[in-house]
Amino acid sequence: MSLRLATFNIENLLSRFDFSGFRNQLKQDRVLRLFDVRSEAEYQRLEEARTIAHTDDTRQMSALAIADCDADILCLQEADNMAALQAFEYGYLFRMVGNGYRQKYLIEGNDSRGIDVAVLMREETRDGQRIECLEVKSHATLTYEDLDLFNEELALTNRPRDRIFKRDCLEVDLRIGGRPLTLYVVHFKSMGPARDGLDGRRATMALRAAEAKAVRHVIESRFGRGHTADKMFAICGDMNDYQEKVVILGDRRNGYEFVPHEEEVSALDILSHDGFVENPMSRRPVLDRWTLFHSRGPEERHLCQLDYIWLSPALARRNSSRVPEIVRAGQPYRTIFPAGQEVERYPRTGWDRPKASDHCPLVMTLDI
Q1: Angle at the Cα of 360 (from 100 to 247), degrees rounded to 5?
Q2: Which residue of 7, 191, 222, 257 shows the fewest CB atoms closer than 10 Å?
């Protein structure tokens, strides 16, 4: 019995407008900077028009990427609320590509922007096995103090009673054709701006490390410390960190060179340490594990994996010959692909936008 499981940071699936760019240029779209906007009312009118015109192409591509996953269960990051999720599922996934999901679960989490994690599920797998959702539980209220995780690094930006998860850890108990499976859906703290001589990744790593420790705590509390290896569970989502990357050298005129680089430290080491979970993407070639292209100009470009389906040891053993798939057709043309990995993009894809997302959906067929 098999299950198609996917995760995708759909990016800003919002049901509202953001007008904060009128007073904060850091939040202002680059298009509006080209125009002389004289009043806040004019800015709001233009921002509404820009957002609506841009969103339809974006969501068509997001829907195509999800359809290409053909997943029985889809874990999403950056969904605004249930209303936005339902509107997207009905108007795009179901009406546009005939690939809808009747079961939808979203609990409002901690993100200050209001973006949440969500789970969409079919009623049956592709081979006709019933998908039952037994319980959905949020862990958004856990604090550093609750788990005794507070330390000097966290004290630079946080207090002991602050919540650990910057969005949530959504625990979803399932029964697939009568067999148990538990999903933990997360979206870890993003990499912020450089601070105190550290780049954005290092400056925010303590926050993600605490989130990773909290996920382990939640799972070990559920199944028992030292008794998780034979349980059937997966951790899905955008971890906003990586253990390796592919550095991109060169330029368009003279060609590119792709250089693998292993990180000395990562917040994700907490999950992979002692074989607690396995990253099946390591079964792919080293240049072909990326789900995101990062660029801050020609001096800082790399490909990396931010999106994960971590498997419990038991689930990994049962699927030892299976390899995750990555859907990259929604990537903008500015993404630099290693030779042999090029794909045919979706219609109307732009140099930077429109696009399905900066993230690539990750999907895996699993024997349960």
Answers
A1: 180
A2: 257
Asked whether 62 and 91 are in contact (CB, 8 A), the reply is no
Each residue of 100-117: pLDDT tens digit? 999 999 999 999 999 999
What is the fold, at CATH topology level, of the domain defined by 2-367?
Answer: Deoxyribonuclease I; Chain A (3.60.10)
Annotated domain spans of the chain: 2-367
Considering the entire predicted model, what is its pTM? 0.96
Q: How far is it, in rounded angstroms, from Cα 290 to Cα 261?
A: 12
What are the helix (H) ranges across 224-283?
269-272
Taking the CA atoms of residue 35, residue 114, residue 83 and residue 106 in that order, the dihedral angle to the nearest 10 degrees is 150
Within the chain, where are the H helices?
A: 40-69, 82-88, 144-147, 152-155, 200-223, 269-272, 313-318
3-state secondary structure of 282: helix
Question: Which residue reads 């949440």 in tokens?
Answer: 116
Q: 94: helix, coil or strand?
A: helix
